[in-house]
Amino acid sequence: MKFAIFSFAHMHAYSYAQALQHIHDAQLTVVADSHEERGEAAARKFGATYYKDYQDALQYGDFDAVIVCSENVHHAEMVVAAAEAHKHILCEKPLATTIADANAMITACEKNDVKLQTAFPIRFSTPLQYVKKQIDSGSLGRILALTGTNRGQNPGGWFNDMQLSGGGAVLDHTVHVIDIMRWYIGSEIAEVYAEVDRRFSDSPVDDCGLLVMEFCNGVIASHDPSWSRPKTFPTWGDVTLRVTGTDGITLVNAFGQHYTQYDDELNMVRQVPWGDNPDLEMINGFIACITNNSSPLASGTDGMRAMEVALAAYESARIRRPVSLPLS
Amino acid sequence: MKGDVINVKVVVIGAGTMGSVHAEAYASMPGVELRGIVDPRLDVAQSLAEKLGSFSYSTLDSLLMAEDPDVVDVCVPTPFHKEYIVRAAKAGKHIISEKPLDRNLSDAEDSIRVCKEHNVRLFVGQVVRFFPEYRSIRQQIVQGKLGQVGTARTFRGGSFPSGSNDWYANSKLSGTIIVDLLIHDIDFLRWCFGDVERVYAKNLVAERNRLDHAYVSLKFQNGVIAHLEGTWSAPSGFSTAIEVAGDKGLITHNSDGSVPIHSAIRQQRSGVAAVEVPSSPMIHNPYFIELEHFIHCIRTGDVADVEPEDALAALKISLAAVRSAQSGEVVTLSQARGEK
């Protein structure tokens, strides 16, 4: 299967391109990036054809599927155009920055009968999938509460430009874990309360927040999406969940499979992961849903629902009251 | 402590879990005499008293007939705190009370007022202030080592607590997991960050199935966002965790992660798998350190690291969280002032 990557604005594009190199029968053939220097370098590095304009890539490029890694606000136009060109789409999260955009993307993909998968690699994390099975098997009993964290560091650059990102830490780091929570318990979030603030930097966007939520089925939950890890933190951040059930508790750390390296060369302590690569498994899953004509594990709708919770968190912080979902 | 110091005479009311911990601390504390243990379950009081070389009584009155203590330490279930505090205060005794001071503000305020009227000291066992790891973390925050703090998270919990007549299972008696358990973290965070601006909380209690779980969101007047989680739903064990993130650094602590000793002892010929027992021994446990500090304040008249007004303030925040969990609304504790 031949792949394009639309924009290397999001650093995950590099991880996905590297993952493609490890997949037999998959090939990165096209890179489109309006940032010429960045795009040409990536195309050179991964042996792909470079286009400055993604519309040209859609018209002339040779590929079946596209991974969209542009700045958040540009996801919608690229996904809709790719769908109309009958390309299958794996879109970086957050799916979009508005509900209207997300709906337009989902509709365009349905209308053109192409797959739309939201890039939630954590769904493909082996430890998190193990816990999904544990929950489904009933060994934790009925689920009572979910506590999530996805802390990290401010990625810098366009992530701090509201016009390109659509939001800061709360949008960037809420969607992964909300997606996992919805998937784990098969229920939608009914209500969100959030504190959102800028406490760690001079960034014009939010860099911390704490969400307290309730699901339609009565499960209570909280999530911490803050860019609160200092420069000396031994890794980029974390994804953790504590699942509390009537018969047991499970604590899962998506990147718990690591060793510690004390590195005098870099003058730092580092956690080096050794577990399965969720990016690779996510792209394998995307290819499988195209090949088998099945539904993606994390669909466009899943991407929209998770994004909606982040938008509700901003609204809650603004009005200082809990906000009901779905947003009208 | 000098040799000519007169011993402080202490009695402990309640021979349950906390009463035993306190009594054991006093029994080994220099300059302190454990003069008696009161419990209506006289056999329970007796066995603890015998173990510690003290005396047992079934009522506070019978003890006060026989002994003339300086300090009464109240380790009874929360609903009985005020009754014993008032009686001890009227008898002119200094009082050390387990937390929470009470389940509602008016009773808590009554207790504080009566102690003032009778000119006796009142100390509330907000013991987290005496846990060395929490003390050290606060020190770093106060000294600015983390820079401007943005977020703080705490966890506290384990399996459902057992108490006499299962009083924890009645949220009217315990005041809920927020008032009984999370008040520890609420008090500690207030000690670190000052007054709270607003509170939001979720609390699973309605089920009365011994599976309480709570989330509390606090926004402090200094801007710090705090998230507290408490559980009584775990199948076993007890643990706490805290992390404080600032723009110059991050502190994380997990009680499970800082245990120096892990032993697995083979069950002799029982065919049962070995039970792993973690141990974290210290010369003095935090309860000893706390009680020794209170006794010191009684001797010297020094201001304590936790005064009754602090316990009252922590209770106020806890009750605001309970109210928020019940109403589903945000509870604002004071007028916004000086918020950045």
Core attributes:
heterodimer; A: 328 residues; alpha/beta; Rossmann fold; Dihydrodipicolinate Reductase, domain 2; 7-stranded mixed β-sheet; 6-stranded parallel β-sheet; 36% helix; 25% strand; B: 340 residues; 2 domains; 10 helices; 35% helix; disordered C terminus; NAD(P)-bd_dom_sf (chain A); nucleotide binding (chain A)
Give a written overview of the molecule.
The complex is a heterodimer of chains A (328) and B (340). Chain A has two domains: 2-114, Rossmann fold (3-Layer(aba) Sandwich), CATH 3.40.50.720; 123-279 and 307-324, Dihydrodipicolinate Reductase, domain 2 (2-Layer Sandwich), CATH 3.30.360. In chain A, strand 13 and strand 14 (268-273) form a beta hairpin. In chain A, the strands form three sheets. A seven-stranded mixed sheet of chain A has the order 12-11-7-10-9-8-15. With 328 residues, chain A is of the alpha/beta class. Chain A has helices at residues 12-21, 36-46, 54-60, 75-84, 99-111, 126-137, 162-165, 169-185, 278-291, 300-319, and strands at 2-6, 27-32, 49-51, 65-68, 88-92, 116-119, 143-149, 189-197, 208-215, 220-224, 240-245, 249-253, 258-263, 268-273, 323-324. Chain A starts with a strand and ends with a strand. Chain A has ten helices and 15 strands. Chain B is α/β, with parallel strands linked by helices. Chain B has two domains: 8-128, 3-Layer(aba) Sandwich (Rossmann fold); 129-281 and 307-332, Dihydrodipicolinate Reductase, domain 2 (2-Layer Sandwich), CATH 3.30.360. Chain B contains ten helices and 15 strands. Chain B has helices at 17-27, 42-52, 60-66, 81-90, 105-117, 132-142, 171-174, 176-193, 286-300, 308-327, and strands at 8-13, 32-38, 56-57, 71-74, 94-98, 122-125, 149-158, 196-204, 213-220, 225-231, 238-246, 249-254, 261-265, 275-279, 331-332. In chain B, strands 12-11-7-10-9-8-15 form a seven-stranded mixed sheet. In chain B, strands 3-2-1-4-5-6 form a six-stranded parallel sheet, with helices on both faces. A two-stranded antiparallel ribbon of chain B has the order 13-14. In chain B, helix 8 crosses helix 10. Chain B is globular, with a radius of gyration of 21 Å. The termini of chain B are far apart. The model of chain B is unreliable at 335-340 (pLDDT under 50). The chains are: A alpha/beta (328), B alpha/beta (340). Chains A and B meet through strand 7, strand 8, strand 9, strand 10 and strand 11 of A and strand 7, strand 8, strand 9 and strand 10 of B.
